Amino acid sequence: ATPILCYKFKEWSDGLKDQTRGNESFDEDTTITAVFEYVGLPEIYIDYKGGISKNRETKATYTVKNACGIYEFENATGSIEGRGNATWKHAKKPYKIEFDEGVNLLGIGDNTKHDWVLIANHADQSLFRNYFAYNTGHRLGIGYKSTLCEVYFNGKYHGVYMLTGQVEESRLKVDVEDGGFIIELDHYYSGKENVNYVTVGKEHYTLKSDYVDLAQMKEIKSFIEDINDALESKDQTRVESLLDIESCVNMYHLQEYTKNTDAGWSSFYMYKRNRDDKLHF
Protein backbone atom coordinates (compact mmCIF):
# COMPACT_ATOMS: atom_id res chain seq x y z
CA ALA A 1 0.00 0.00 0.00
CA THR A 2 1.83 3.10 -1.26
CA PRO A 3 0.65 6.51 -0.01
CA ILE A 4 0.61 9.66 -2.10
CA LEU A 5 1.90 13.03 -0.90
CA CYS A 6 0.20 14.34 2.28
CA TYR A 7 -0.79 10.85 3.48
CA LYS A 8 0.76 7.88 5.29
CA PHE A 9 -0.33 4.28 5.52
CA LYS A 10 -2.27 3.43 8.69
CA GLU A 11 -3.59 -0.12 8.32
CA TRP A 12 -5.66 -2.48 6.19
CA SER A 13 -9.40 -2.59 6.73
CA ASP A 14 -9.14 -6.08 8.24
CA GLY A 15 -6.75 -4.76 10.91
CA LEU A 16 -3.41 -5.93 9.48
CA LYS A 17 -0.71 -3.32 10.15
CA ASP A 18 1.98 -4.48 7.73
CA GLN A 19 2.16 -2.13 4.75
CA THR A 20 3.16 -4.95 2.40
CA ARG A 21 1.11 -8.16 2.32
CA GLY A 22 0.77 -11.15 0.03
CA ASN A 23 0.69 -14.96 -0.28
CA GLU A 24 -2.83 -15.01 1.15
CA SER A 25 -5.74 -17.25 0.12
CA PHE A 26 -9.48 -16.77 0.62
CA ASP A 27 -12.48 -19.13 0.46
CA GLU A 28 -14.88 -16.42 -0.77
CA ASP A 29 -14.86 -13.02 -2.50
CA THR A 30 -13.18 -10.55 -0.16
CA THR A 31 -12.59 -6.79 -0.31
CA ILE A 32 -9.67 -5.39 1.67
CA THR A 33 -9.02 -1.64 1.66
CA ALA A 34 -5.82 0.20 2.49
CA VAL A 35 -6.48 2.94 5.05
CA PHE A 36 -4.37 6.11 4.93
CA GLU A 37 -4.36 9.16 7.17
CA TYR A 38 -3.60 12.78 6.33
CA VAL A 39 -0.28 14.05 7.67
CA GLY A 40 -0.16 17.53 6.07
CA LEU A 41 1.59 19.09 3.11
CA PRO A 42 5.21 18.27 2.26
CA GLU A 43 7.71 20.79 3.62
CA ILE A 44 10.61 22.49 1.82
CA TYR A 45 13.25 24.19 3.98
CA ILE A 46 15.40 26.78 2.19
CA ASP A 47 18.45 28.20 3.93
CA TYR A 48 20.48 31.09 2.50
CA LYS A 49 22.51 34.13 3.52
CA GLY A 50 21.70 37.71 2.51
CA GLY A 51 18.65 38.70 0.49
CA ILE A 52 16.83 37.32 -2.53
CA SER A 53 16.52 39.45 -5.66
CA LYS A 54 14.78 39.00 -8.98
CA ASN A 55 17.05 37.73 -11.77
CA ARG A 56 20.04 37.33 -9.43
CA GLU A 57 20.92 33.97 -7.92
CA THR A 58 21.56 33.55 -4.20
CA LYS A 59 23.24 30.35 -3.03
CA ALA A 60 20.94 28.13 -0.97
CA THR A 61 20.58 24.67 0.56
CA TYR A 62 17.38 22.62 0.46
CA THR A 63 15.84 20.06 2.81
CA VAL A 64 12.55 18.26 2.11
CA LYS A 65 10.49 16.69 4.91
CA ASN A 66 7.08 15.02 5.30
CA ALA A 67 7.14 13.62 1.75
CA CYS A 68 6.12 9.99 2.21
CA GLY A 69 9.70 9.09 3.12
CA ILE A 70 10.29 8.70 -0.63
CA TYR A 71 11.12 12.23 -1.79
CA GLU A 72 12.89 13.49 1.32
CA PHE A 73 16.51 14.67 1.45
CA GLU A 74 18.75 17.02 3.43
CA ASN A 75 21.08 19.90 2.58
CA ALA A 76 21.04 19.69 -1.22
CA THR A 77 22.93 22.65 -2.66
CA GLY A 78 21.69 25.10 -5.26
CA SER A 79 20.42 28.65 -5.65
CA ILE A 80 17.24 30.75 -5.44
CA GLU A 81 16.07 33.92 -7.18
CA GLY A 82 12.90 35.96 -7.54
CA ARG A 83 10.62 35.61 -10.57
CA GLY A 84 7.36 36.95 -11.98
CA ASN A 85 6.16 40.31 -13.28
CA ALA A 86 3.21 41.78 -11.39
CA THR A 87 3.40 38.93 -8.85
CA TRP A 88 6.90 40.00 -7.78
CA LYS A 89 5.40 43.23 -6.40
CA HIS A 90 3.19 41.35 -3.93
CA ALA A 91 4.05 40.86 -0.28
CA LYS A 92 4.29 37.07 -0.76
CA LYS A 93 6.68 36.60 -3.67
CA PRO A 94 7.29 33.76 -6.16
CA TYR A 95 10.69 32.15 -6.68
CA LYS A 96 12.72 30.07 -9.06
CA ILE A 97 14.82 27.43 -7.28
CA GLU A 98 17.72 25.53 -8.80
CA PHE A 99 19.65 22.47 -7.66
CA ASP A 100 23.30 21.76 -8.45
CA GLU A 101 22.34 18.14 -9.07
CA GLY A 102 19.01 17.25 -10.67
CA VAL A 103 16.16 16.04 -8.45
CA ASN A 104 12.60 14.85 -9.06
CA LEU A 105 11.26 17.29 -6.49
CA LEU A 106 8.30 15.80 -4.60
CA GLY A 107 7.91 13.31 -7.43
CA ILE A 108 5.99 15.66 -9.74
CA GLY A 109 8.38 15.40 -12.69
CA ASP A 110 8.97 12.71 -15.29
CA ASN A 111 12.61 12.55 -14.24
CA THR A 112 15.24 14.62 -12.44
CA LYS A 113 15.55 18.34 -13.26
CA HIS A 114 17.65 21.23 -11.96
CA ASP A 115 15.12 24.09 -12.18
CA TRP A 116 11.77 24.37 -10.38
CA VAL A 117 9.26 27.14 -9.58
CA LEU A 118 7.56 28.09 -6.32
CA ILE A 119 4.37 30.03 -7.15
CA ALA A 120 3.17 32.18 -4.25
CA ASN A 121 -0.56 32.28 -5.10
CA HIS A 122 -0.78 35.62 -3.29
CA ALA A 123 -3.80 36.64 -5.39
CA ASP A 124 -5.42 33.21 -5.12
CA GLN A 125 -6.75 33.15 -1.58
CA SER A 126 -8.32 29.73 -2.15
CA LEU A 127 -4.79 28.34 -2.78
CA PHE A 128 -6.53 26.03 -5.22
CA ARG A 129 -7.44 27.83 -8.46
CA ASN A 130 -3.89 27.85 -9.86
CA TYR A 131 -3.39 24.29 -8.65
CA PHE A 132 -6.55 23.20 -10.48
CA ALA A 133 -5.61 25.08 -13.66
CA TYR A 134 -2.05 23.72 -13.79
CA ASN A 135 -3.05 20.11 -13.18
CA THR A 136 -5.91 20.37 -15.67
CA GLY A 137 -3.39 21.63 -18.23
CA HIS A 138 -1.08 18.74 -17.35
CA ARG A 139 -3.87 16.22 -18.00
CA LEU A 140 -4.51 17.93 -21.35
CA GLY A 141 -0.83 17.53 -22.24
CA ILE A 142 -0.07 21.27 -22.34
CA GLY A 143 1.55 21.97 -18.98
CA TYR A 144 3.44 20.74 -15.96
CA LYS A 145 2.07 18.86 -13.00
CA SER A 146 2.07 20.77 -9.70
CA THR A 147 1.65 20.16 -6.00
CA LEU A 148 1.16 22.26 -2.89
CA CYS A 149 3.83 22.46 -0.20
CA GLU A 150 4.78 24.49 2.87
CA VAL A 151 7.95 26.58 2.61
CA TYR A 152 10.36 27.67 5.33
CA PHE A 153 13.06 30.33 4.86
CA ASN A 154 15.98 30.01 7.28
CA GLY A 155 13.75 28.03 9.64
CA LYS A 156 10.87 30.55 9.56
CA TYR A 157 7.50 29.52 8.12
CA HIS A 158 6.84 31.37 4.86
CA GLY A 159 3.47 29.97 3.75
CA VAL A 160 1.84 27.55 1.34
CA TYR A 161 3.35 27.55 -2.17
CA MET A 162 2.63 25.70 -5.39
CA LEU A 163 5.58 23.77 -6.79
CA THR A 164 5.78 23.21 -10.54
CA GLY A 165 8.31 22.91 -13.35
CA GLN A 166 10.29 25.70 -14.98
CA VAL A 167 9.57 26.17 -18.70
CA GLU A 168 12.85 25.08 -20.28
CA GLU A 169 14.30 23.23 -23.26
CA SER A 170 15.07 19.95 -21.50
CA ARG A 171 11.49 19.52 -20.25
CA LEU A 172 10.02 20.21 -23.69
CA LYS A 173 12.75 18.33 -25.61
CA VAL A 174 13.65 21.46 -27.59
CA ASP A 175 16.85 21.28 -29.68
CA VAL A 176 18.00 24.87 -30.23
CA GLU A 177 20.91 23.80 -32.47
CA ASP A 178 18.40 22.14 -34.80
CA GLY A 179 16.11 25.17 -35.09
CA GLY A 180 14.00 24.60 -31.99
CA PHE A 181 12.88 27.44 -29.71
CA ILE A 182 10.60 28.49 -26.84
CA ILE A 183 8.81 31.87 -27.06
CA GLU A 184 6.55 33.77 -24.72
CA LEU A 185 3.76 36.08 -25.81
CA ASP A 186 4.97 39.00 -23.70
CA HIS A 187 3.45 42.49 -23.84
CA TYR A 188 5.52 43.62 -20.88
CA TYR A 189 8.34 44.00 -23.42
CA SER A 190 7.92 46.49 -26.24
CA GLY A 191 11.44 47.70 -27.01
CA LYS A 192 13.57 47.32 -30.13
CA GLU A 193 13.93 43.92 -31.74
CA ASN A 194 17.09 42.05 -30.77
CA VAL A 195 18.36 38.52 -30.23
CA ASN A 196 15.85 38.03 -27.40
CA TYR A 197 12.74 39.82 -28.68
CA VAL A 198 10.63 40.26 -31.85
CA THR A 199 7.37 41.92 -32.85
CA VAL A 200 5.00 40.35 -35.40
CA GLY A 201 1.96 42.44 -36.22
CA LYS A 202 0.84 43.92 -32.90
CA GLU A 203 2.13 41.01 -30.82
CA HIS A 204 5.37 40.99 -28.82
CA TYR A 205 7.37 37.79 -28.28
CA THR A 206 10.26 37.16 -25.91
CA LEU A 207 12.61 34.29 -26.63
CA LYS A 208 13.00 31.84 -23.73
CA SER A 209 15.56 29.56 -25.38
CA ASP A 210 19.28 29.89 -24.69
CA TYR A 211 22.11 30.38 -27.19
CA VAL A 212 20.11 31.72 -30.13
CA ASP A 213 21.87 34.17 -32.48
CA LEU A 214 20.40 36.95 -34.60
CA ALA A 215 20.09 34.75 -37.71
CA GLN A 216 18.04 32.20 -35.76
CA MET A 217 15.88 34.99 -34.35
CA LYS A 218 15.09 36.17 -37.90
CA GLU A 219 14.14 32.58 -38.78
CA ILE A 220 11.81 32.43 -35.75
CA LYS A 221 10.16 35.72 -36.73
CA SER A 222 9.67 34.48 -40.29
CA PHE A 223 8.02 31.30 -38.96
CA ILE A 224 5.56 33.31 -36.81
CA GLU A 225 4.77 35.52 -39.82
CA ASP A 226 4.06 32.39 -41.89
CA ILE A 227 1.59 31.20 -39.24
CA ASN A 228 -0.18 34.57 -39.20
CA ASP A 229 -0.41 34.58 -43.00
CA ALA A 230 -1.80 31.02 -42.99
CA LEU A 231 -4.44 31.93 -40.42
CA GLU A 232 -5.47 35.08 -42.27
CA SER A 233 -5.75 33.16 -45.55
CA LYS A 234 -7.95 30.54 -43.83
CA ASP A 235 -5.91 27.83 -45.55
CA GLN A 236 -6.62 24.87 -43.25
CA THR A 237 -4.03 22.55 -44.82
CA ARG A 238 -1.30 25.15 -44.45
CA VAL A 239 -2.34 26.00 -40.87
CA GLU A 240 -2.25 22.32 -39.88
CA SER A 241 1.24 21.99 -41.38
CA LEU A 242 2.52 24.78 -39.12
CA LEU A 243 0.45 24.49 -35.90
CA ASP A 244 -0.13 21.56 -33.56
CA ILE A 245 -3.91 21.88 -33.62
CA GLU A 246 -4.62 19.65 -30.61
CA SER A 247 -2.42 21.65 -28.21
CA CYS A 248 -3.82 24.89 -29.67
CA VAL A 249 -7.43 23.82 -29.04
CA ASN A 250 -6.63 22.44 -25.58
CA MET A 251 -4.85 25.66 -24.63
CA TYR A 252 -7.82 27.73 -25.84
CA HIS A 253 -10.24 25.65 -23.79
CA LEU A 254 -8.06 25.87 -20.67
CA GLN A 255 -7.63 29.67 -20.89
CA GLU A 256 -11.35 30.17 -21.53
CA TYR A 257 -12.47 27.76 -18.81
CA THR A 258 -10.22 29.31 -16.15
CA LYS A 259 -10.74 32.88 -17.46
CA ASN A 260 -7.01 33.53 -17.33
CA THR A 261 -6.47 37.30 -17.61
CA ASP A 262 -2.86 36.77 -18.84
CA ALA A 263 -4.01 34.96 -22.01
CA GLY A 264 -3.05 37.04 -25.03
CA TRP A 265 -0.89 39.31 -22.90
CA SER A 266 1.96 37.55 -21.10
CA SER A 267 3.12 34.25 -19.55
CA PHE A 268 1.78 32.46 -22.63
CA TYR A 269 4.32 29.97 -23.96
CA MET A 270 4.78 28.25 -27.32
CA TYR A 271 7.57 26.02 -28.58
CA LYS A 272 8.96 24.17 -31.57
CA ARG A 273 11.22 21.17 -30.88
CA ASN A 274 13.27 21.43 -34.08
CA ARG A 275 13.26 23.04 -37.51
CA ASP A 276 10.85 20.44 -38.96
CA ASP A 277 8.39 20.53 -36.03
CA LYS A 278 5.09 22.38 -35.72
CA LEU A 279 4.39 25.10 -33.18
CA HIS A 280 3.05 23.66 -29.91
CA PHE A 281 1.28 25.48 -27.06
**Structural class assignment:** alpha+beta
State the helical fraction: 10-25%
Tally of helical runs:
5
The order of strands across the largest sheet is: 3-4-5-6-7-9-8
- Element-by-element helix/strand order: EEEEEEEHEEHEEEHHHE
Residues in β-strands, percent: 25-35%
Q: What is the gyration radius calculated from CA atoms? A: 22 Å
Number of strands: 13
**What shape does the CA trace take?**
globular
Mean of all residue-level pLDDT scores: 93
Major pleated sheet: 7 strands, mixed, barrel
Unreliable segments (pLDDT under 50, ≥5 consecutive)?
A: none
* Spatial separation of the terminal alpha carbons: 37 Å
Set down the secondary structure blueprint.
Elements: E1 7-12, E2 34-38, E3 43-48, E4 58-65, E5 73-82, E6 95-103, E7 113-119, H1 129-139, E8 147-153, E9 156-165, H2 169-172, E10 181-185, E11 197-200, E12 203-207, H3 214-233, H4 236-242, H5 245-258, E13 268-272
Parallel strand pairs: 3-8
Antiparallel strand pairs: 1-2, 3-4, 4-5, 5-6, 6-7, 7-9, 8-9, 10-12, 10-13, 11-12
Helix pairs in contact: 1-5, 3-4
